[in-house]
Design goal:
By secondary structure, the chain is an alpha/beta fold. It has 10 helices and 9 strands. The strands form 2 sheets. It has a 5-stranded parallel sheet with strand order 6-5-7-8-9, sandwiched between helices. Strands 1-2-3-4 form a 4-stranded parallel sheet. It is globular.
């Protein structure tokens, strides 16, 4: 079968873990047969999923678009969490966890000195709104680029003592490697359902720290787009709008919000109210996944 996952044109850490995990651990599952696909890490169970192919779900979740009509083309080995299972009408026992926990199986034989201290990964959409690398530099923490080379990013996570995660798979990988983490939310594109789904699968609660949004989109906007945006904002202010209009670009607040974000990170460093699943839960989920795949491979 073929490996199916979402491919962002500039890269996205969580999605890009798929070929590394599956080709590293189970290369013999794959061939040139494109009538069957393996759906791994990602929110892939939806109405946009490929039609007319057999879909084997290895830990994907629900969340974006509409829930698909389930027919014989779907086979659920396991899903990301209990919320996904409930949406799909599946038994709770099918809700193991996100397959990115298998990072532990690939990396468990090697060790790194955790010299990076604290690291932060924003959601891959958030990097378009502000210069998070600069904010991390000023806060004295390591920036984890969600669009960067995954091997370098994995190295940086493994070298960290604590991970601040707006990107869910930064938390999942940190947890799999037994590195404490804390979730944060800065923008409204963060889908709480996904986080709750995964956290529930690991017997954890999703309780993110909310940061004020940092807006610096104008630095990458053309003069024409800025004029359009300012015009829309003025018209909206006097009650004139059109449903077909895209929203105006958020007003730049970087001068004040950059420093606020730095201070927020500094507060997190002081308190380090961190999350980490129990060793027993971590071990149980990995064992269950490995057994499930072994049964499938027979």
């Amino acid at each position: 079968m073929k490996l199916f996952y979402y491919k962002d044109k500039i890269g996205n850490f969580g999605d890009d873990l798929n070929p590394w995990i599956w080709y590293s651990l189970y290369p013999n599952l794959f061939d040139n047969n494109d009538s069957e696909i393996l759906m791994g890490a990602g929110t892939l169970i939806n109405s946009e999923a490929p039609k007319n192919v057999k879909k084997y779900v290895f830990g994907s979740g629900v969340g974006y678009h509409e829930t698909p009509a389930i027919d014989s083309s779907w086979e659920f080995l396991w899903v990301r969490g209990p919320l996904s299972a409930q949406k799909l009408g599946l038994e709770r026992k099918v809700a193991l966890t996100d397959p990115a926990i298998l990072a532990h199986e690939i990396l468990k034989q090697t060790s790194l000195t955790r010299k990076n201290g604290v690291a932060f990964m924003p959601h891959h959409k958030s990097i378009h709104f502000a210069n998070w690398r600069s904010i991390c530099l000023d806060a004295g923490i390591t920036y984890l680029d969600p669009t960067g080379d995954i091997h370098q990013t994995l190295h940086d996570i493994r070298s960290s003592t604590f991970v601040i995660a707006e990107a869910m798979h930064a938390a999942i990988v940190a947890d799999s490697l037994r590195i404490p983490w804390v979730p944060v939310v800065c923008y409204d594109h963060i889908l709480a359902f996904k986080w709750q789904d995964w956290c529930s699968s690991m017997d954890l609660e999703y309780s993110p720290i909310h940061l004020n949004p940092v807006w610096d989109i104008e630095r990458n906007s053309t003069k024409l787009n800025l004029i359009k945006s300012n015009t829309k904002r003025l018209l909206n202010g006097v009650g004139i709008s059109n449903p077909s209009w895209s929203p105006p670009i958020p007003k730049t607040n970087v001068q004040e919000s950059h420093e606020e974000a730095v201070k927020a990170f500094e507060r997190i460093l002081k308190t380090q109210s961190c999350h980490l699943s129990k060793n027993s839960v971590h071990s149980d989920r990995i064992s269950s996944i490995l057994e499930t795949i072994q049964q499938f491979s027979k």
